[in-house]
Amino acid sequence: MTDAHVEPQWASRLRDIADFPKPGILFKDIMPLLADGDDFRAAIQAMSARWRDLRLDAVVGIESRGFILGAAMALELGVGFVPVRKPGKLPGKVLREEYTLEYRSDCIEVHADALPAGARVAIIDDVLATGGTLVAALSLVRRLGVDVVGAGVLVELDGLGGRGRWEAGLPLHTELVY
Ligand code: AMP
């Protein structure tokens, strides 16, 4: 018997929290997954496998859960890690990009000297919802002159239009779709 849609064992560690951070939002909580060593490692290995042969120079992680997944992936892949942060957190000269989230407007920043032009990077976050964050991160890091090879998220929330906002033809890997 084969079933291409069998979920990995670690998927059972994701938890739905209703009405967080505000009414109407079904929050996908990855904390129980992070708390289990074997399942956390399995999830990181699955996300990393997508990029293993693509000669990345760095993983770009989006604050804050993208830091956890992205930094673990960077170690797994043997490459560097660059944080994309909420405003006012990075100490050096920054580039800034504004965007709209599923539940609020915000902006993100990256150090202007974070990566050399031409560096090959993948952008990592935990959840793809409307796609606003990932698309903003794409335009932000491209202003550094880097080569964005694609993006990866653990969970894609289908029906919020995120994938449709992502650049056609640019890889967007998601491990689980709900
Ligand atoms: P979006 O820009 O709408 O794709 O939202 C993605 C960002 O917001 C990611 O950084 C997620 O961590 C967070 N996020 C948005 N919606 C959810 C959700 N339903 N559950 C968990 N995280 C979410």
TrEMBL record:
Assigned keywords, A-Z: Cytoplasm, Glycosyltransferase, Purine salvage, Transferase
Keyword Transmembrane assigned: no
Its pathway, per UniProt, is: Purine metabolism; AMP biosynthesis via salvage pathway; AMP from adenine: step 1/1
Indicate the quaternary assembly: Homodimer.
**By its UniProt entry, which InterPro entries does this protein fall under?**
Ade_phspho_trans, PRTase-like, PRTase_dom, UPRTase/APRTase
**Signal peptide feature range:** none
Localization of this protein: Cytoplasm
Record domain Phosphoribosyltransferase: where: 56-166
Q: Which family does it belong to?
A: Belongs to the purine/pyrimidine phosphoribosyltransferase family.
Q: Name one GO biological process term.
A: AMP salvage
**Enzyme Commission numbers on file:** 2.4.2.7
> What is this protein's function?
Catalyzes a salvage reaction resulting in the formation of AMP, that is energically less costly than de novo synthesis.
Which reaction is recorded as catalysed by this protein? Answer: AMP + diphosphate = 5-phospho-alpha-D-ribose 1-diphosphate + adenine
Q: What is the lineage of its organism?
A: Bacteria, Pseudomonadati, Pseudomonadota, Gammaproteobacteria, Lysobacterales
Q: Name one GO molecular function term.
A: adenine phosphoribosyltransferase activity
Q: Which GO terms describe its cellular component?
A: cytoplasm
Q: Which residues span the membrane?
A: none
Q: Which Pfam families match?
A: Pribosyltran (PF00156)
Q: What is this protein called?
A: Adenine phosphoribosyltransferase
Q: Which SUPFAM superfamilies match?
A: PRTase-like (SSF53271)
